[in-house]
Specification:
The protein is mainly alpha-helical. The protein has helices at about 50-55, 60-75, 80-90, 105-110, 115-120, 135-145, 145-150, 170-175, 180-190, 210-215, 220-230. It starts with about 50 loop residues before the first helix and ends with a helix.
Amino acid sequence: MTGCTDPGEVTGPAQLTPSGSASASSPSSPSSPSSPSPPTTESAAGVSPSSRSATSKTLAPGELIALNQTLIGVAWDNDVDQARRLIAAGADVNYEDETEQSAFLIAASEGYLELLDLTLRNGADVDARDSFNGTALIRAAERGHADVVRRLLETDVSVNHVNIPGWTALHEAIIFGDGSPRYVETVRLLVEGGADVRLPSQRDGLTPLQHATSLGFEEIAAILRNAAEQ
């Protein structure tokens, strides 16, 4: 990737925002190849990674690819039941398509909390990277998905990871946010989760507080100012 999109650009699933997530106004989900019929029963808590691995080893390479690609499609649709069946059949929640999207990363960027939990229970790599070298946490923060941010902060995800455009999750929650309550809560969670409020952006050299102040986000600026004084 040689550049990044503008903050206001509207993109689809194969056209990504600076964090790599699809825009909220993305078109219908990409079509996926047909896959072998998955099992219709499995535990409500999800499929254990070990049993999923054993299942996937019995599939032909083409069948496994089909399952994984189908999982990407149902993730865009937020079809949790079908995703559960595909995972039980051996689909990999960390499989990334040609746009470097996985079921896990899609769940984070789109705010699909139940799907996110399903992927986490089935071996999701919390530090997986998208095409902008962004993490699930950065993608969720950019969209102001506070519930997803809260859930990811319960894992060992890197809070201060910097993506290719030069931003952390905290930077993106401010720069791409609108200062509304969901973004205020997102910033609060990130700060409480260990986000570095003094870290300047590698893109423009500004700190999160400087960005919040310039954008007129008073509540967010107050949170950052208080954290910086601790």
